[in-house]
Amino acid sequence: MLKNAYLRRVYDQVLARDPNAPEFHQCIREFLESLEGIADKHPEWEQNAILERFVEPDRIITFRVTWVDDAGKVQVNRGYRVQYNSAIGPYKGGLRFHPSVNLSVMKFLGFEMNLKNGLTTLPIGGGKGGSDFDPHGKSENEIMRFCQAFITELYRHIGQFTDGPAGDIGVGSREIGYMFGQMKRITNQFDAATLTGKHLSYGGSLVRTEATGYGICYFTDEVLRHQLNTSFEGKTVIVSGSGNVATYAAEKAMQLGGRVVCMSDSNGYVHDPDGIKLDLIKDIKQNRRARIKVYADEVPGATYHEGCRSIWDVPCDVALPCATQNEVDVAEAKKIIDGGAIILTEGANMPCTLEAVAMLQAAGIPVSPAKAANAGGVSTSALEMTQNSMRLSWTFEEVDERLHNIMRGIYKAAYDASVEAGQPGNLVVGANIASFLKIADAMLHQGIV
Ligand code: NDP
Ligand code: 2IT
User: What pLDDT score was predicted for residue 1?
Assistant: First the structure.
């Protein structure tokens, strides 16, 4: 537990203020533990209540979302936006539509988003939002009506200089399009830079769709080369999930010479020892919006296994959890270690529990934290805003090269900070410190606000 008295006091206050928020406590604890080695050197933090301010969101907005389903029944969901910190730029972060969304999940995602954005070198603060709406099984019209109802309340709280939402679980370019259209209808403004992840036809950026997944592999490649003196070439890779992040992480892993053998959804996983055929995954998930099980029905030699967590029963060299928070706990970490993995990169936000990270690190497996490794998505969102502001668009190659350079820079910043903190290669500690020092500095310069 925390040894530094100031850090402990801040943590105890978080526990007391938000008693029923396990995900939120988890990310705060990891963050404060990362500061253990350096907090004594910064008396100005306590003097200015920097940490107390850093863990408390600037603002939390919750609202009712009322919409009508296809049967004519009125439905009520809850909407959220956590505007966490705007020290280095307007709040920026995705929207999640999933039945598990609650305030603890929103606050953890907002807190992580702020630290992530601090690593990107781009002028974006942190925020996150969403709803407990479940998109599974909804018709196209129901999705549209829900998105319109959701943004009809949220639009008054956002804007390119205030807060810029994007996608996350259950929200992709289809949902962003419906929200953009409704916001334009209400405001009579074509305010492109407020929402990112837009379709290419009206201001989206090339590479944004692929960016999170590609960035995860660019980051993993840095760790493989720099810390393990190897590469993706010939490695067996497992990617959990089969949504936006997982699909393009798998694509880049293959492009870099890896062989992806398993992918999953929330029901189960498929194992294809010959290597996953990604075009078929894209067709099943993006076009047919069907379950991943269908893959095994259509590919001879592939098998389907009920239960998504057992994906780690299959041995791999490179583990890329890309579905959701806490999908890798000690049982899964043990399987990953026993299966001979040499590296784990967090693709989803906080996919590993604190205990799982500790076990993997103790086994000598470098763990790349989500806030560093999956920052390619939001970075490319910020590049989308840049293009919107300039009223022009860059080529695929130009955006991809910027993304690649940003990921290299984030790796270097996190690694250098881990060395500075006396824990070389501990990227969990390094990423937290590198980002926090930057944001804390901006907060100090802006006075007591
Ligand atoms: P998608 O909605 O596109 O895909 C989510 C995937 O994860 C699906 O395969 C889904 O399965 C699975 N999944 C969701 N919830 C659970 C659950 N509770 N248990 C098991 N599986 C689950 O989302 P994204 O790919 O966009 O997001 C995946 C992760 O990456 C999230 O943690 C998100 O916060 C993070 N992320 C996303 C970014 C982005 O740009 N989109 C950027 C950075 C991070 P099913 O279809 O069965 O629900
Ligand atoms: O978690 C994340 O980084 C995102 N959901 C992407 C946020 C964004 O603004 O692109």
Answer: 84
**CA-CA-CA-CA torsion sign (319, 324, 325, 326):** negative
Instruction: Give the side-chain half-sphere CA count within 13 A for 38.
Output: 20
Catalytic option among 107, 116, 128, 252: 128
Count CB neighbours of 66 within 10 A. Answer: 13
Whether residue 366 contacts residue 227, with contact meaning beta carbons closer than 8 Å, is answered with yes
Q: Which two tokens stand for residue 20?
A: 């029923």
**Per the structure block, which two tokens stand in for 10?**
């801040």
Measured from CB, residues less than 6 Å from any atom of ligand 1 are 94, 98, 100, 167-170, 212, 241-246, 265-267, 308, 322-324, 348-349, 374, 377
pTM, rounded to two decimals: 0.98
Within 10 A of 72 (CB to CB), how many other CB atoms are there?
6
Q: Residue 265 has which token pair? A: 């959804």
Strand 74-85 versus strand 125-131 pairing type = antiparallel
Percent of the chain at pLDDT exceeding 90: 100
pLDDT band at 305 (very low <50, low <70, confident <90, very high): very high
Return phi, psi of residue 271, to 5°.
-120, 120
